[in-house]
Design brief:
The chain has about 450 residues and is an alpha/beta fold. It folds into 3 domains: about 170 residues, no CATH class; about 50 residues, no CATH class; about 120 residues, Glutaredoxin (3-Layer(aba) Sandwich). The protein contains 14 helices and 8 strands. The strands form 2 sheets. Strands 6-5-4-7-8 form a 5-stranded mixed beta sheet. A 3-stranded antiparallel beta sheet has the order 2-1-3, with no helix packed on it. Helix 1 runs antiparallel to helix 3, helix 1 crosses helix 5 and helix 3 crosses helix 4. The longest helix has about 80 residues. The chain starts with a helix and ends with a helix.
Length: about 450
């Protein structure tokens, strides 16, 4: 019995912590989670539902987070075990077919924080399935941690806090970023790493008897092999190739390197959906461009390729038109999760980010009065502190809740049990006394009848 309790604790720990962290990472980046959901919808031929990708991602992340809390805390186990089993079985089957047909490169189950291939995700889900099945089978044997209303209130509190976190990250910039363009990222080093000639090797593909193989220049095959094609193979980590910052002018000239290597601060206004930005925003951008130029910096506006609305904006605001750049939508959303957000780059380092509705020309003047290295350090430390303190507080509150409920509710349960035992003893004593009286009365009646016969 003790071994079973230990196993159940380990199963709850593994399953609960995984679900909590997975949900938390996605909650802090709802736009990125929406991109992941959108990719799954596209693969499943459900692109007509992409309008609700971000909302569905929020609901999914919130549900996953609360299931993890409930399993880890051992509260509302019947509901939580059902929900956890259904979710993990569904995603285990989904990731198996995604991995089998190589439909998606990465699962995105931990957002941008942890990158797993689809096969790695499948095996992770198999382990979680092994953990949740015994929890589900013994779901009726878990004791209450607290009164039922208190358990629901605890989950509701975590739900409200998580909802606040996801809504704040959606309307602003993510509270914590893990991607290639997070504050403190060295863009010039990343760009140099994947663009250097030493990072690639030319290979030659030859075919023989229906079989193709790769050969380098020093180990070419004999004449029995037929040449097929030539490819460039990246020698480093393939995940480095996920870094994409291709931005070009209206004439098609790529200016990424000039932005990254600039010795003056570069303010990059990232426009994701121009139709959702009003005229007040464009006036603010126009004023900010003048302010940046006045202080000796560089300002550029990056928008999606083939966006006709930007032509009318360029006509109304010539300064914006002269500083317009174009890029792929996914590249832009990787730079800034906020529509109209601003990213500051100096000497190849991402210094700071602002949400579009928060930025003003005053921020430009304030930035030039400060040391950019100091700003970068401050922003990086702030994000790191939030991340570490949030994780710490999350699990600390869980431990405190379990401990306090164990004392209060456990003592109450112990008192009730003691009172029940006392009542049962008294009841048994009274019953024994009544039985003794019956036996005594029966014996006396028997003796009296015997004397009468004599």
């Amino acid at each position: 019995m003790r071994l079973l309790r230990i196993l159940m604790f380990l199963f709850r720990l593994v399953f609960g912590v995984t679900f909590v962290l997975s949900g938390f990472f996605k909650l802090t980046d709802p736009v990125g989670t929406g991109l992941i959901v959108d990719e799954y919808l596209r693969v499943l031929h459900l692109s007509f539902l992409d309008f609700g990708a971000v909302a569905f991602g929020m609901v999914l992340s919130l549900t996953e987070f609360l299931i993890g809390i409930a399993i880890l805390m051992c509260v509302r186990m019947r509901v939580a075990s059902w929900a956890g089993l259904v979710m993990i079985v569904f995603f285990t089957v989904l990731t198996f077919f995604m991995a089998l047909y190589d439909a998606v490169e990465e699962c995105g189950c931990f957002g941008e924080a942890v990158h797993l291939t689809m096969w790695e995700t499948f095996f992770k889900n198999v382990v979680l399935t092994i953990c949740i099945v015994p929890i589900f089978l013994f779901r009726k044997h878990f004791k209450l941690v607290a009164p039922i209303p208190a358990e629901w209130a605890f989950l509701a509190t975590y739900g409200v806090l998580a909802l606040f976190c996801v809504l704040y990250s959606y309307t602003n910039i993510p509270l914590v970023e893990y991607g290639n363009f997070r504050v403190g990222s060295n863009l010039s080093a990343r760009l140099e790493k994947i663009s250097g000639s030493d990072s690639f090797e030319t290979v030659f593909i030859y075919e023989k008897d229906g079989r193709q193989e790769h050969f380098d220049l020093e180990h070419l095959p004999d004449t029995s092999w037929r040449y097929v094609s030539t490819e460039s193979v990246y020698l480093g980590d393939e995940r480095d190739l996920l870094f994409d910052m291709t931005l070009s002018t209206d004439d098609g000239e790529i200016v990424t390197e000039s932005l990254v290597t600039s010795e003056v601060p570069v303010f990059l206004f990232v426009v994701l959906r121009p139709e959702r930005l009003g005229d007040a925003y464009w006036k603010k951008v126009d004023e900010s461009i003048d302010s940046v130029a006045l202080h000796g910096g560089m300002a550029r506006v990056a928008a999606p390729v083939m966006e006709p609305l930007m032509d009318s904006v360029a006509l109304r605001y010539p300064d914006i038109g002269r500083n317009m750049l174009y890029g792929d939508y996914r590249t832009l959303v990787s730079m800034s999760r906020s529509n109209g957000g601003v990213m500051l780059i100096h000497n190849g380092i991402v210094v700071k980010k602002w949400a579009g509705w928060k930025f003003s020309s005053e921020d430009v003047r304030r930035t030039f009065r400060m040391d950019t290295e100091e700003v970068t350090a401050r922003e990086t430390i702030a994000q790191r502190l939030f991340y570490e303190s949030s994780i710490l507080m999350l699990f600390l509150v869980i431990i405190i809740f379990r401990y306090v409920c164990g004392i209060i509710y456990g003592r109450k349960f112990h008192r009730l049990s003691a009172w029940e035992r006392l009542r049962s003893r008294r009841k048994a004593s009274r019953k024994a006394a009544r039985n003794m009286k019956r036996k005594t009365r029966g014996g006396s009646h028997g003796s009296e009848s015997g004397d009468g016969e004599k």
